[in-house]
Design a protein that fits this description.
single chain, alpha+beta, Butyryl-Coa Dehydrogenase, subunit A, domain 1, Butyryl-CoA Dehydrogenase, subunit A, domain 2, about 15% strand, binds flavin-adenine dinucleotide
Length: about 400
């Protein structure tokens, strides 16, 4: 039986306070300014890394804090609840897990301590392609072994932080699709040093929000054969094994967003007086905020369950998917309630509501679309026929 903590331990409280202290130094103006210029929050990420928070999940023997997903979730939630965004650096927490679980001892010793110390950034995760999208098994980027190298050719789409990262975890096809037994076979994971890599073009994409996202073009890119993580052809399974952590962590950012929106909405609608009384006294304003609050709290409870199961080494696919879905929807509901109660001011940049509104919308779509989360629940949890 796995116990779920319904409160924070003293250590978790201290962790949260430490993160909140850093966040205070990066107020709304900081994020707003970067958003307008679509620039990476370099100072924030550097300070967070220096304080060791991004190495939270790296075991102590490799220079990290050796904490659990519950603590990693708390860090990301706190950043989002303070009005910031951890999307600039969250991937490092869960990408690293693939190297930890499936990498060789030599790879772990070579990379993890330097990632933990901040000497190296592993923030880029190259999966999505223009023609494959949600159907990862259809990836076309190839990595062909020639002697002591692999030669990579293909295109990747929406690959975030490639320009701010030293390393990228890349998923590419090593066996042609028509030569594999199962459609999930034939893909391999590589840990690639992308600094100055010949033949790799990184083309930034201007997105709805500040997300440092790019299109990547691989033209006969040569990478050392020892970039391969684990066994050739097993990459899909390796990536899947990290998805529960990814879902719980991204959901925690949504929960933080939801908390920020409800707090802002309560504060504004309690002091804004129209028709002689605070607008929050009207049920039309108050109830959407209260409903969103309930949804965010329910998602947080599911997150705590998912994290407790994950950290106990128990299966948590159902819970990780449910919280990804519930948290993204709850944050979106809270965002709508917040923008509605702010009236015209909800659209004014200086209130930060419109920025957070744009930012939180992503988590209905990425890293996996909520439709596919529901498809997972329908098929794998409820035992219904496969829909795709
Ligand atoms: C800002 C941003 C950052 C990103 N960063 C990264 C990154 O760093 N690395 C990376 O690899 N990827 C990244 N992505 C890509 C993201 O993971 C994909 O956008 C996502 O997986 C969906 O792929 P797609 O956009 O091709 O949509 P598609 O797969 O084309 O889907 C389009 C729509 O159709 C729906 N759909 C498709 N098939 C079904 C079905 N069978 N049943 C029901 N609905 C279905 C989907 O749910 C979706 O609503 C990022 C995306 C964005 C927007």
């Amino acid at each position: 039986m796995v116990a779920i903590n319904l409160g924070l331990t003293d250590e978790q409280r201290a962790l949260k306070a430490g993160v909140a202290e850093i966040c205070k130094r990066y107020p709304g103006e900081y994020w707003r300014d970067l958003d307008a210029r679509r620039e990476y929050p370099e100072a924030f990420v550097t300070e967070l890394t220096g304080a060791g928070y991004l190495a939270c999940l790296i075991p102590q023997e490799y220079g990290g804090a050796g904490l659990g997903v519950a603590e990693a979730a708390l860090i990301l939630e706190t950043i989002h609840a303070s009005g910031g965004s951890a999307s600039a650096c969250h991937a490092q927490m869960y990408i690293m897990g693939t190297v930890l679980r499936h990498g060789s001892e030599a790879q772990k010793r070579q990379y993890l301590p330097r990632i933990a110390s901040g000497d190296l950034r592993l923030q880029a995760f190259g999966v999505t392609e223009p023609d494959a999208g949600s159907d990862t098994t259809q990836l076309k980027t190839t990595a062909v072994r020639t002697g002591d190298r692999y030669v990579v050719n293909g295109r990747k789409m929406f690959i975030s932080r490639a320009l701010q990262s030293d390393l990228m975890l890349l998923l590419a096809r090593t066996t042609p699709a028509d030569q594999v037994k199962r459609r999930t076979d034939g893909l391999s994971v590589f840990l690639v040093d992308i600094r100055g890599l010949k033949g790799l073009e990184i083309r930034p994409l201007r997105m709805m929000m500040n997300h440092s996202t790019n299109a990547l073009f691989f033209d006969d890119v040569e990478i050392p054969a020892d970039s391969l993580v684990g066994e050739e052809g097993r990459g899909f399974a390796y990536i899947l094994s990290g998805m529960n952590a990814e879902r719980i962590l991204v959901a925690s950012e949504s929960i933080g967003d939801g908390r920020w929106f409800t707090e802002k909405a309560v504060a504004y609608s309690s002091q804004r007086v129209i028709f002689g009384k605070p607008i929050g006294a009207n049920q039309g304003v108050q109830f959407p905020i209260a409903k969103a609050y309930a949804a965010v709290e329910a998602a947080a409870l599911m997150r705590d369950k998912a994290a407790a199961l994950f950290d106990a080494g128990e299966p948590c696919g159902a819970e990780a998917n449910m919280v990804k879905y519930l948290a993204a929807e709850a944050a979106w509901e809270a965002g709508n309630a917040c923008i509605d109660c702010h009236g015209g001011y909800g659209y004014a940049e200086e209130y930060d509501v419109e920025r957070k509104f744009r930012e939180c919308r992503l988590y209905k779509t990425a890293p996996v679309n909520n439709n596919l989360v529901l498809a997972y629940l329908g098929e794998h949890v409820l035992g219904m026929p496969r829909s795709y």
